[in-house]
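ok so heres the complex, two chains, lmk if somethin looks off
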Amino acid sequence: MAVCVAVIAKENYPLYIRSTPTENELKFHYMVHTSLDVVDEKISAMGKALVDQRELYLGLLYPTEDYKVYGYVTNSKVKFVMVVDSSNTALRDNEIRSMFRKLHNSYTDVMCNPFYNPGDRIQSRFVCLGRAFDNMVTSMMIPVC
Amino acid sequence: MEGLTLSDAEQKYYSDLFSYCDIESTKKVVVNGRVLELFRAAQLPNDVVLQIMELCGATRLGYFGRSQFYIALKLVAVAQSGFPLRVESINTVKDLPLPRFVASKNEQESRHAASYSSDSENQGSYSGVIPPPPGRGQVKKGSVTHDTVQPRTSADAQEPASPVVSPQQSPPTSPHTWRKHSRHPSGGNSERPLAGSGPFWFPFGEAQSGSSAGDAVWSGHSPPPPQENWVSFADTPPTSTLLTMHPASVQDQTTVRTVASATTAIEIRRQSSSYDDPWKITDEQRQYYVNQFKTIQPDLNGFIPGSAAKEFFTKSKLPILELSHIWELSDFDKDGALTLDEFCAAFHLVVARKNGYDLPEKLPESLMPKLIDLEDSADVGDQPGEVGYSGSPAEAPPSKSPSMPSLNQTWPELNQSSEQWETFSERSSSSQTLTQFDSNIAPADPDTAIVHPVPIRMTPSKIHMQEMELKRTGSDHTNPTSPLLVKPSDLSEENKINSSVKFASGNTVDGYSSSDSFTSDPEQIGSNVTRQRSHSGTSPDNTAPPPPPPRPQPSHSRSSSLDMNRTFTVTTGQQQAGVVAHPPAVPPRPQPSQAPGPAVHRPVDADGLMTHTSTSPQQIPEQPNFADFSQFEVFAASNVNEEQDDEAEKHPEVLPVEKASDPAGSLRVAKTDSKTEEKTAASAPANVSKGTTPLAPPPKPVRRRLKSEDELRPEVDEHTQKTGVLAAVLASQPSIPRSIGKDKKAIQASIRRNKETNTVLARLNSELQQQLKDVLEERISLEVQLEQLRPFSHL
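and the predicted structre for the whole thing:
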C-alpha cells in the first residue's frame, strides 16, 4: 500500500525511512521532508487545545499529482509519515489509520527494547534491532512493490 | 544479515568447518587465512568469493564470526549450485547441497557428506577425514605447523571421531562415552578457561562461581542428552583446537572427550529434532538463571526493568545488536521488563549465542514464557495460548481469559511479526463482548428484566398506571407473576421470560430457552417487558435507543401487544400481571432502554399505540411495553422508513405527554374505551379500520397472538398476518430442538420468519405512523377546544 514510510524524531531528523526501491528514493525523502512543515502546522493548529485531545492521526497532509501524504504524530512528537500512491484509490481512511496504528505499535516495541537508544536510527539491516519494525513496514509496502 | 536456517547436516558440516578454521579456538572468529583457503578450495572465481565475503558481512565486520562463516558457506553452496548470489538466497534456496571444497577437501567433503547424510558412517571414516583438513592447510600454505598438525591429527584420526567432523554415529557408545566424558568437560574447562561456558561465565563477572556453576551445569548436563547440545557442542570446537594445538596427551583426553561429546552432540542434534529441544533449559541451567534473576530482582514474581537487564546482559560481551535481538525475542509481552521466564529465556539465548549458536528468528517454544505451566513445552498446540497467557503476567490475565484463547492464538505471530500487537484492542473487544454478554444476561434476570419491549402504547393514563405498577411491584416480582397468572396455559414460575414466551407463542418455552439464537431474544423480550414495566416511566433515553436490530421476533412483540390488547379490554390493572406475561414474549426488539422509551411515546401515539395497549387491559404494566413495542415498531419503522422525524417528535412529545398526562387523560379514557370496543369488536377487520379505530389493528394482532386463536387472525389482515407470522415464529422458536444441528436450521428458519415479520411490522409501523398523525391532529384540536372551553382559566 504505502510507497514510502518514514519515522521522524522530535527534532525532525529521520529515525527511519524506507521507500519502495522502484523509484528515485530521493524524491520520497524530499516529499517527507516537506511534509514536516505541514505536520508542524497541523500540530500547532490543534495544539492550542489540550495536547491530550489532539488526535494522533493527522490525516492527509497534502496530495500531489501522483501521491498522497498522510501524517501521524505521537504524543512525544515523533512523527510518522506515509506516502501512498494516488492511484491506489482503494485505500480508505480507516485503512490508513490502521496502518499508522501498526506503525505506532511496532515503534513502541522498538522503544521497549532497552538496547535501543532513543534517537538512534532504527536499523533492521542487522539481525535484530528494528527487524520486527522493518518486517512490519515491509508488510505494509509489499503490495506496492 | 538475515538469519540463517540450516539443516542438521548443514549445521554439523558448517560447525566442523568452523572448528577447522577456528585455529585460535576462540569459537567466535575464524582465522581469515583459513577461511580464504577454504573458499579458494571451493573453486569459485575470486570475485564470487569476494562477493560472498561481502554478503556474509565479513568485510563489514573485518572478521568471520560464526554466523558470518555459516552464511559464507551457504553462499558457497549457492554459488556452486549455480544460483545467483543474494542475501535472500541463503534461506530461500532449498535443498542446497553442501558446499564443495576441492583439493584435499574433497575427501573431507565426501566424507562429510556421507557422514552427515547417513548415520552408518563409522568412526574410521572420520579418521580419514582428519588428515584432509590439515592437508588443506598443507596444500595451501605448506606451513610447518600444518605438517605438525597433520601427524598429530592423523594420530588423532585414529580416534573414533574427528574433532572437526562431529561424528554422528556410534549411538551405542555415545551415551556412555558421553556420560563418562561429560565429566571431562569440567576438566576441560579447567584447562581451557575459554572453552564452553568458561568465557561465557567470566564476562558475567562470576569467574569462580560462574565456572563452577558452568561445570556443575555441564556435569549436570550429562544425564539429559538433548539438552547438552549447547554444552557438548561447545566442547567440540575447543577440543578440536586442542587437538590441533596441544600436546597429544591433552589431545587424547580432549579428543576422547571431544569424540564422546561430539558424538553425543551429533547424536543429540539428531535426536534433538525428535526432542525438538535444542533450546530447552535444563534444571541446572534454570536454577542458575533463577539465581541470577534473584541477584537483580529478589522477588521471583517481579520484573527486571529493561535498564537493569541491559546492564546485565551487556556483561556478556555480546554485540548490542545481538543483545537487542535477544531482547526482542525474549520480551514476550513487550513491556520493557523481564519476568523470570523471560529472563531465563534471554539468558539461555545469550548462553547459546556465546556458544556459537545462531539466534533463532522466533523464540523457541521451549523458551516461551509460561505463566501457567512452567517448563511445559510439551503442548505445542496450546503453547500459543499459554504463551499469550504467560506473556502477559503483569497484565490481568484473568480478566482477559475469556477472550484470551483467541488472543493467545495470535500471540506467537504477534510476538514474532509484531504486526497485530493490538492486544489492547482485542482486550477491549473482549470487554465489549463481556459487556454484551452482561446485557444479555441481565434481561434474563427476572428481577431486573423488564425491558420487554412491550409495545404498549401507553396513554398518559397508562403510563401512570404503569408507574404505579412499577412502584407497586418494585422489583417486578409481581410483574412476572402477573403475566403468568394471566396466561393460564403456560404460566410458569420458573422464568418469566419463558412464560412470556410461552404466552406469546402459546407453546412451551423450553424450545425458546434451548435455542441459542432465540434464547437471548425471549429473555430480552421478557426482560424488556418487565423492565419496561418498571422503567416505563423512567427512561427518557428512549429517544435514542440503540436501534437494536429488531431482533428476532417481532412476533414476540406482536404477541405481547395482542395480549395486552386483550387483557386491557378484559381486565383492569389487576390483570396486568397476566397481561404482562404476554408481552414479554414479544418483541425482541426491545432494547430495554428502548422499551421504556416507546412506552413513553405510547401516550402520544395514543391511537395506534393504545390499540396495542388496550388490547391487553390487564397489562397496565405491559402498557408501557405495549407502547414501547408499538413505539419500537414505529421507531423501527421510522428508522426503516426514514420517518425518524416523527419518532423524534413523538419521543419528546411522549415525554411531556406523559408528564402532563392531563390532556392525555381524556384521550386515554377515550382510547381505553376504543380499545375495549376494539376488543369486543374483535373480528372486525381491525387493520382496515385503522383510520377509524386506531386501536383496532394493534389489539387485534396482539390478541390473536396471545390467544393463538385462529379466529382472530384471519380478521386482521396485516396484523393477522403479522401476528400469524409472529405467532408462527414464536411457535416455532420454542419448538426448536435443543440439538445444535437443528438449531442452525431453526435459526435460519427463524431468520426467515423474522424477516417476514420485519416486513409486516414495517408495514404496520407505517400504518401506525399514519394513525399517530391523525391522533396528533385530534389532540391538537381537542386542546384547542379545551382552551376555548376554559377561557377564564387562562385569565
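quick notes: The radius of gyration of chain A is 14 Å. thats all i got rn
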